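Here is the promised in-class demo. Please do not try to memorize the tokens; focus on the logic of going from shape to residues.
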């Protein structure tokens, strides 16, 4: 049952996408391509974020080559200044500003240390921003600032992140556990998306678990639950407790290891993805040496994903196929992609996309 590869389905436009870490956008403008749109981020005089199409309407010079000055973003070619609404507010040497002297503006906001950009043409919905469990709460250590550029379509990323089974084989030295290879994956849905999960019972701790918590010579029960929230947020809920311990929420929180690993997938183009990540944990909260080790392990894990995603992208382009057969672990990824297709189709039908989208395959 061969399935054709198609990188032209388009994107969900009416949503917030992570565009940059707030620390990346300070005194200088910052360029990033998001959903195929070239966008420049900059700080307004009051410190809030502006987001504009990265083209001056005069000669199309990239505004990201300019500077934050004169109350807005000043083009580095002829000095035209634009505010966060995309309006030109000043032109050197002339008082009259043509009505065409404006560029497209995007709504932008800051939350969780990230800058988010709304890419659609309807009123931004603040309630559709991700909700990060544990963020800003007592008893949790935050590790953020994670970013990788992945040379693959965001759908391949989603398939990877909704697939707990691959961790056994791709991530042997970090989060993988050979004891998990024959444990089936369960799938459930909820109001914001999907969950693919399994408990692996009475097994040795994974390499990373052994570095994270003192389980002695004992065995553990390990939950790994991959959540996907439409259209572009993934988080993995990991709980590791001594084998046989009751799985109450209190024991999951205090009996061993609990971590929430968040990933924000922002399509750059049809063939590349911005991969932002942050991690919350309830153990070894003030251990900076351990945190450095953990960060290195997570970066290694995500880099392994990046290598595989890039390889798959290349083979799909070479063959024109997404896959030639299907197996049981495909259920959650297929469900996630179908939900995205429905969102894209709904936007197309309503005409509220912010851009033209390709038809969704039947």
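The designed amino acids, position by position:
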């Amino acid at each position: 049952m061969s399935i054709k590869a198609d990188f032209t389905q388009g994107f969900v436009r009416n949503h917030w996408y992570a565009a940059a870490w707030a620390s990346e956008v300070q005194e200088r403008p910052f360029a990033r391509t998001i959903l195929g749109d070239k966008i420049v981020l900059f700080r307004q005089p009051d410190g809030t974020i502006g987001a504009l199409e990265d083209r001056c309407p005069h000669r199309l010079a990239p505004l990201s080559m300019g500077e934050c000055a004169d109350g807005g973003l000043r083009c580095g070619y002829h000095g035209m200044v634009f505010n966060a609404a995309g309006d030109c507010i000043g032109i050197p040497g002339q008082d009259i500003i043509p009505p065409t002297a404006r560029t497209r503006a995007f709504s932008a906001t800051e939350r969780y240390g990230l800058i988010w950009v709304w890419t659609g043409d309807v009123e931004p919905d603040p309630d559709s921003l991700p909700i990060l469990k544990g963020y800003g709460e007592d008893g949790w250590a935050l590790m953020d600032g994670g970013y990788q550029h992945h040379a693959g379509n965001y759908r391949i990323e989603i398939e990877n992140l909704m697939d707990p089974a691959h961790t056994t084989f791709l991530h042997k030295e970090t989060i993988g556990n050979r004891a998990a290879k024959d444990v089936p994956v369960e799938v459930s849905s909820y109001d914001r998306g999907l969950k693919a999960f399994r408990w692996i019972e009475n097994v040795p701790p994974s390499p990373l678990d052994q570095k994270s918590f003192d389980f002695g010579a004992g065995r553990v029960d390990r939950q790994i639950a991959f959540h996907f929230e439409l259209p572009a947020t993934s988080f993995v809920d990991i709980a590791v407790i001594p084998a046989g311990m009751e799985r109450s929420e209190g024991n999951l929180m205090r009996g061993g290891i609990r971590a929430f690993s968040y990933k924000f997938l922002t399509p750059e183009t049809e063939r590349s993805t911005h991969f932002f990540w942050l991690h919350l944990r309830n153990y070894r909260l003030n251990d900076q040496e351990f945190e450095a080790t953990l960060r290195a392990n997570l970066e290694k894990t995500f880099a392994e994903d990046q290598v595989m995603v890039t390889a798959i992208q290349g083979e799909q382009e070479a063959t024109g196929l997404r896959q030639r057969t299907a197996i049981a672990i495909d259920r959650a990824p297929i469900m996630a992609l179908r939900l995205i297709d429905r969102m894209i189709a709904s936007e197309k039908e309503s005409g509220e996309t912010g851009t033209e989208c390709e038809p969704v395959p039947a």
